Amino acid sequence: EAEASDIVLATTRLKEIVYGAAHDCLLKADERGVKFDIQCPDDVQARVNALLLQQAVRNLFGAQNVPLPL
User: Fold this and answer.
1) How many angstroms separate the CA atoms of 8 and 27, rounded?
2) How far is CA 65 from the centre of its chain?
3) E runs forming strands in the chain
4) Per-residue pLDDT, 20
5) Which residue, 19, 22, 54, 59, has most beta carbons within 10 Å?
6) Are residues 33 and 20 in contact, defined by beta-carbon separation less than 8 angstroms?
7) Residue pair 49/9 in contact by the 8 Å Cβ criterion
8) Residues of the chain with pLDDT under 70
């Protein structure tokens, strides 16, 4: 498991992460009849690890078993 010092952070637009995670989950969501209404301003940025945040967002969408694109 990664230690805190191994996690690389970068300033990233959050909209790209949230929309990317939602896109990865669309098929499974459609099968379940789930619709997304995502609203995120273009200029919101944060210093994050994009892959870890995307996985966390995917978990919130309930798509834990959908593999991350590499």
Assistant:
1) 30
2) 14
3) 10-13, 45-48
4) 87
5) 54
6) no
7) yes
8) 1-4, 63-70
Q: Which residue carries 């991350």 as its tokens?
A: 68
DSSP notation for 21-43:
HHHHHHHHHHHHT--------TT
- pLDDT confidence of residue 2: 57
Q: Is the pTM of this model over 0.85?
A: no
Distance of alpha carbon 52 from alpha carbon 33, whole angstroms:
26
Residue in 68, 66, 55 with CA at minimum distance from that of residue 27 = 66
Local structure of residue 10 (DSSP, 8 states): E
For residue 3, give the DSSP letter.
-
Residues 6 or more apart in contact with residue 60 via CB below 8 angstroms? none
Tokens of residue 4, six digits: 């805190």
Size of the chain in residues: 70
